Amino acid sequence: FLEELIRMVAAGSTETLPDTVLAMLQARIGRLPLELRRALRAASIFGHSFSEQGLASLLDLRPEDPQLGDLLTTLRENEMIERQIENRHAGRSEYGFRHILVREAAYALLTDAERRSLHRAAGLFLAEQPGPEPRVVAEHLLRGQEPARAVIWLMRAAQQALDGNDL
Question: 157: pLDDT confidence band, cut at 50, 70 and 90?
């Protein structure tokens, strides 16, 4: 909270100070340019961490698009996200929110319609990736109101749990 207060004062803000860290982070996100807010909110769909390719998919950009690189660089410079040291898939750039509260603040700024649409898109994107985690794909599809597609992934998750003796 103190860190966010310092950032707010250092930025020369004359606003009254928000009562909570979440409100302060939402105010800080609200001061970002539209494209940065859009990227941050889209990234929040994936949880605490996300891949460059996943974000590109949700923003309708190609992973090699310079605009995507600029967005990620600026979000890093604004200390909203950071590059992950460990990435789950070799050759893929992974990012994470600087703090889980930044992710929560960005996610809370999404409308219900945006959440549904982005979760659906995230589920479809993850389903096409090598070795997707069935439970995660199903969760996105359920939140994206795609129950028919989610059932397939729920069955895969159940089989995976059964095979791993994870009853």
Answer: very high
pLDDT digits (tens, 9 = 90+) for 52-94: 999 999 999 999 999 999 999 999 999 999 998 755 555 568 9
What is d(CA 85, CA 55) in angstroms, rounded to the nearest whole number?
Answer: 18
Residue 96 pairs in a beta bridge with: 49, 82
Range list of β-strands (E), 24-109: 49-51, 81-83, 94-97
For residues 95 and 52, the answer to whether their CB atoms sit within 8 Å is yes
Q: Is the pLDDT of residue 149 over 80?
A: yes
pTM of the model: 0.84
H/E run at residue 61: none
On whether the CB atoms of residues 106 and 28 are closer than 8 A, the answer is: no
DSSP string computed for 5-32: HHHHHHTT--SPPPSSHHHHHHHHHHTS
What are the b/e assignments for 108-139, b being 16+ CB within 10 Å? ebbeeeebebbbbbbbbbbbeeeebebebbbb
CA atoms within 13 A on the CB side of 164: 7
Distance of CA 149 to the CA centre of its chain: 22
Please determine, for residue 102, whether its predicted confidence score (pLDDT) is greater than 60.
Answer: yes
Cα–Cα distance for residue pair 39/161, rounded to 1 Å: 34
